[in-house]
Design brief:
Layout: E1 6-10, H1 14-26, E2 37-42, H2 44-54, E3 61-65, H3 81-87, E4 89-93, E5 96-102, E6 107-112, E7 115-120, E8 126-132, E9 135-143, E10 145-149, H4 157-160, E11 172-178, E12 189-192, E13 197-201, E14 209-213, E15 216-218, E16 221-228, E17 234-238, H5 244-251
Parallel strand pairs: 1-2, 2-3, 3-17
Antiparallel strand pairs: 4-17, 5-6, 5-16, 7-10, 7-14, 8-9, 8-13, 10-11, 11-12, 13-16, 14-15
Length: 255
């Protein structure tokens, strides 16, 4: 993949900022809005920021790890950057669209590349009703919360909640409970990526719940609808030996 222009963006932090200075001396760069590709220096959180920012421009993002977590990043190396970009393999990810309705009846919309999550706000457990494609699948889930994760996000919060890791290209979403109390043994479900999931909060006045789509949080929700956005897409670039699908497979065999 040949790129005529590149921009470099760095997270706040000494490692990322030092890398930005060093790479900027070695390679010709342009402003981010004019670049054909963006090189992101940081960790996975910074990569998410860059992907959200690039969504409207359609720029691919090539990350190099200068942060604490680097699942979505390539190894940091200053030599041969242009060749690495040319040989990189793309991974296209369609984000989730969240529509959250709060107790005032107001709708809030946001996109999530990793996951949409619901979390209880008080000492009381949340009670959620779950529907999939217009069919009620669970009348009451008593829990700390629940989430819907993309394949790319399945190795993030979803894994911490004991959800399944999904290979890129599998065409699936993970629906995962967070600390489920009833039904106690329910571990979640794998759904087609075309599924529309609706969470209704039971008794939101007593058992208040917040909803988050990556960086966007909505307080005191009564209903949250989640579906894949067919009109939005982000592209990550990976070195051939470190592509995202291979990383996801490796993650499932870690001790």
């Amino acid at each position: 993949m040949k790129f005529d222009t590149l921009a470099i963006a760095a997270a706040d932090g000494p490692e990322a900022e030092a890398a930005l200075k060093s790479l900027s001396r070695r390679y010709d760069t342009v402003a981010i809005e004019d670049a054909g590709v963006v090189v992101a220096l940081g960790g996975d959180g910074f990569m998410l920021q860059c992907l959200h920012a690039s969504m409207q421009r359609g720029q691919p993002i090539y990350g190099m790890n200068r942060g604490s977590v680097g699942f979505l990043m390539n190894a940091y190396q200053e030599d041969g950057l242009l060749q690495r970009l040319e040989e990189a393999e793309p991974a296209k990810i369609r984000p989730l669209a969240m529509t959250a309705t709060d107790t005032e009846g107001q709708e809030h919309k946001a996109l999530a590349i990793n996951e949409v999550s619901l979390i209880r706000k008080t000492r009381q457990a949340a009670k959620l009703r779950i529907g999939v494609d217009g069919v009620e699948r669970m009348a009451e889930l008593v829990c700390d919360g629940a989430l819907v994760a993309t394949a790319a996000g399945s190795t993030a919060y979803n894994v911490s909640a004991h959800g399944p890791i999904i290979p890129i290209g599998a065409g699936l979403l993970a629906l995962t409970p967070i600390s489920a109390f009833r039904p106690r043994r329910w571990r979640g479900a794998l759904l087609p990526e075309t599924a529309r999931v609706v969470f209704d909060v039971i008794d939101p006045g007593l058992r208040s719940v917040s909803a988050s789509a990556d960086f966007t949080e909505v307080q005191d929700v009564t209903r949250v609808a989640v579906r894949q956005d067919p009109d939005a897409c982000v592209t990550l670039l990976f070195d051939p030996e470190h592509d995202l699908e291979e990383r996801i497979i490796k993650e499932q065999f870690l001790p």
